[in-house]
Amino acid sequence: MARAGLTADRVVAAAADLADEVGFENVSLSALARGFGVKDASLYSHVRNLQDLRTRVAFLAGGELIDRIAVAVAGRTGREALGAFADAYRAYALEHPGRYAATQIRVDQSLIADSPALRRTAEITYGMLRAYGLEEPDLTDAVRLLRSTFHGYCALESSGGFGAPRDVRRSWERAVDALHVALTHWPREGQPG
Fold first, then answer.
1. How far apart are CA 55 and CA 169, in angstroms?
2. How many helices, marked H, and strands, marked E, lie in the chain?
3. Backbone angles phi, psi at 151, to 5 degrees
4. HEC per residue, 82-114
5. pTM of the predicted model, to two decimals?
6. What count of other Cβ atoms lies within 10 Å of the Cβ of residue 58?
7. 41: exposed, middle or buried (C-beta count within 10 Å: 0-12, 13-18, 19+)?
8. Taking the chain (193 residues) in consecutive chunks of 10 residues, what is each chunk's mean pLDDT?
């Protein structure tokens, strides 16, 4: 019988907290069980296996991230919305490194369709980019540009990869300015570049 008070939500929240402490890749069912004072087998009443746990942490973190972004971009468009989106993304990545790492894992496509947080992420991101006049397939390309730029910058910053004396925050602001220019002057699919 499962220990009283142990639920799937508590297990996932504890795994997210542990990911921020020790790194997402170091989260294990054994470490979680020790934290709860139970045997590993007790957790299998709440999660199927480590992959299931990782996926659930990814969904939890993705929901937290998009909630933060949604608040930041509300009522804004253009450069102001892009900057708010970028700053919320960066702040979350730096404040919650383990949770953020979870948002970067590949998740089974059949699970994505059932995730309100991931649908909301697409709605907010695509909505912000539509303000730049983008339509498919340019929307998908622009989303990929933003994600790779934001992720790359955050990964380098969190690992201490920026060694130049230039203020990292100022470089971030300039990168967002450059993205705004790129989105404003996006080379439309099928039009000469």
1. 31
2. 10, 0
3. -65, -45
4. HHHHHHHHHHHHHHCHHHHHHHCCCCCHHHHCC
5. 0.91
6. 25
7. exposed
8. 74 97 96 93 92 94 96 96 98 98 86 79 94 95 97 95 93 98 90 62
